[in-house]
User: Fold dynamin GTPase from Ambrosiozyma monospora.
Amino acid sequence: MITATKIPLIGVTQMGGTLGRPQHSSLMLATALRRSFFSRAHTHRHYPLSLVMNSLGKRAQQQQYRTIFFDNNSRASLHKSKRNYSYNVQPPAHQPTNVIGARPFSVFGIGKAAVRAAKLPAYLGGGLAAAGSYVIYQVEKATNYTTDQLGRVKDIAGDLADGFNGFIDGIIDAAANASDGGANASKSGSESSGSGGNGNGAAVGGSAAAIALSSDEDEEEELVLEEDDEEDEEEEEQADDTDDDMVNLTRQMIEIRSILLNVNGSNALRLPSIVVVGSQSSGKSSVLESIVGQEFLPKGSNMVTRRPIELTLVNDNSLAAETAEFPALKMFNMTDFSQVQKILFDLNMAVPYEEAVSNDPIQLTIRSPRVPDLSLVDLPGYIQVEAADQPVTLKNRIRELCERYLEEPNIILAISAADVDLANSSALRAAKRADPRGERTIGVITKMDLVSAEQAKKMLTNRKYPLKMGYVGCITKAPQTQSLFRRQSGTQAFIAQQNFERSFFKEHKNDFAGSTTGTKNLKKKLMRVLEKSMASCLKPMHILVSNELEETSYKFKVEFNDRELTSEKYMAQTIDQLKIGIKEFSEKFGRPELKALLRSELDQRVLDLLALRYWNKPPTPQTSKKNATPD
Ligand SMILES: Nc1nc2c(ncn2[C@@H]2O[C@H](COP(=O)(O)OP(=O)(O)OP(=O)(O)O)[C@@H](O)[C@H]2O)c(=O)[nH]1
Assistant:
């Protein structure tokens, strides 16, 4: 893709503020400085920098703007474009206005003003020198900030899964290589060596990302092996750290997302929603609860989910315990989850009998230090045929409602109960329609406790609809016959369900060998899916960073060809430029210009006084009477 980028010359010099590690920040500096320096200079006349720009106006017209064409994708064409780059002379869009006009002025202080005016060039000189220092200070500050931020990204990357790790490192290495390449280019003056550094850096980053993403393809195989090990008794004795892993992953996501937000202001890390579909009473709500770790959804065998429940989980470290909120009902900070469950039940049951289901979603947000940052959707269950007392269009309406949520990039949790033949599974039928290649669907078989182990195992190796992420067998509710569990609710019920599920699969360890079972492993699968989605979200970012670095290094080369660039030299050069600017300005701004300014200020002030004295006078009785008379 060929892009044309307009870069003011002074913006290029600013980017070289500090060399070595800080060059990672060139992306942000290039944009931020270009924006702040020029927009301020052109739009805010009271800024000291506008003076500089004013004085440099002539120079700017001669050389400040150039257009560089280059191909973002190919190194070879970059070389070609470098040979063909051209300078387009374009004057700034707005010439800066004169700052003196903004100074306060008193008609009684003309004498004093004249004296001050004589000293004005000296004041301005001092002001401009201070402005210069301020600019340099800001450049350093911005450079240090971005260095810190990128350092943090690297630290976080160190903690992430291997594939993802490679990806982030690729970015950091590409950044380092590119900056070094830029500096080397300046040192050696050799065109090929400078761009070569960048190109390689980008290539390293690109291949790192590619390896990271391709390694995900083999995840499932690894997972099954891991799971086999997890079935070992020894490991089962250990504490379950899946929740912690999930929360850690979430934290990293949030951190990366906020860094990306700071750097480029876009929410580049969007995660898909996890949508739970299945036939009526298949156990959808129970599966969702086992993921969240709280019992809060209405459950029952009489179609209790009648509206989509859009559940947003927010990881909030400032909280000691979970809180729930219904933003639409203006109900916040609810800590009693049985109350939440009751409200959800009432909201579902409030759907009129003639309608049976409603498209209007219920929005619920749960904040907790322990939940991952996710959005989950519980949907009304599919039905086979409408009952005599149900609307005849109900089946189609449920189907249409679910299809909207099954679209890409959402992850589909297709729930089927083990006590129903999989050939009749509405969830798998719907998932196949939305995701024919089975790439973003996880098949979940609930109620494993209700069928024989042989039958259950057969379901987990479903060959009719093979899923890339496979099938997971779960027990999301302890059987009702066990009165011990029936009495429990909330967190207690959740713990009881976990214990029951664990002991069940432990008992049938040999029957389910080689299959994925348990809600713990379901969560693990979800985590991998989220990691993968994060990596693919970051891939375009990586390409963007590489391209920007290539561009920046090229600009370094053009600007500092054959010269070694250090921060001291850069600072000295900037100060020299400011000095020249001040000199030009003081030469241009002599007595006649000052007189003209004072005169126009004085005229304006006299006009203001006249307006006050005569035109804004309150109406006399005669004038108001005259105004009131119709024509
Ligand atoms: N024995 C057993 N019962 C389960 C299991 N999972 C869910 N149930 C029971 O199945 C019934 C339906 O569960 P829900 O989670 O409400 O199912 P649902 O699909 O959300 O139901 P609707 O929203 O009404 O479509 C409840 O009575 C649960 O207690 C399980 O793994 N084993």
